[in-house]
Design a protein that fits this description.
Largest sheet: 6 strands, parallel
Strand order of the largest sheet: 5-4-1-6-7-8
Strand content: 5-15%
Distance between the termini: 8 Å
Order of helices and strands: EEHHHHHEHEHEHEHEEH
Shape: globular
Number of strands: 8
Radius of gyration: 17 Å
Number of helices: 10
Helix content: 40-55%
């Protein structure tokens, strides 16, 4: 393995609370009730454009209005609700000593600010979000962009995620995949990022 590409939400950060608060702020501006528990689960995996299309119907006036409102709401207050994964900097420092590191996430305008605000640009060389590619995950576009940037074949790259959507993107890009957390469907999985270096050595 030469390249390790990491998802953001659920891997580098526990950001469920931040994302839920953000989407509920959008819904409040639209005069809508807060999300149900099922929607709270779904927004963890979907890109924002996918969220509004799923909620209100693709191409609908309300979905477009939700996107407009979302652009007007700053994510800055919600950064404080993001919790770095246990041992995050230790894990990244260990990985950086042996591999190229990248981040690929269905996030949009917050991608670069997350790296800067949390000091992750010391470890992560390249980051791709939904505004950098044509299609979000589970399509492989952002992972293929990482392979192109580092000029490495998929056979020496691994994507680290926490959802079946992430696994599908890795498979579509012909990359290895390691799941973080309770993911019984994944062939390779670790409990925390601190376990990742040992797992990578065995792939």
């Amino acid at each position: 393995i030469e390249l390790v590409v990491l998802d953001c939400d659920g891997v580098l950060f526990e950001s469920g609370g931040a994302n839920i608060a953000y989407y509920n702020a959008v819904l409040a501006r639209l005069g809508r009730a807060p999300m149900t528990e099922e929607w709270e689960r779904q927004v963890h995996f979907l890109a924002s454009a996918q969220v509004y299309d799923a909620m209100f119907g693709a191409g609908s006036t309300l979905a477009e209005e939700a996107r407009r409102v979302a652009r007007e709401i700053s994510y800055t207050p919600f950064f404080d609700l993001m919790r770095p994964a246990d041992g995050l900097e230790e894990a990244l420092a260990t990985l950086r000593a042996s591999y190229h590191l990248a981040m690929a996430t269905n996030r949009g305008s917050t991608v670069r600010e997350i790296l800067r605000r949390f000091g992750l640009d010391r470890y992560i060389d390249f980051a791709v979000g939904i505004h950098d590619v044509e299609r979000p995950k589970p399509h492989p576009d952002m992972l293929l962009r990482c392979l192109e940037h580092f000029a490495v074949p998929a056979s020496v790259a691994v994507y680290v995620g926490d959802s079946e959507t992430d696994g599908e993107a890795a498979a579509a890009a012909s990359m290895h995949f390691v799941a973080v957390g309770e993911c019984p469907w994944a062939r390779h999985r670790v409990t925390t990022l601190l376990d990742l270096p040992r797992k990578l050595a065995r792939i």
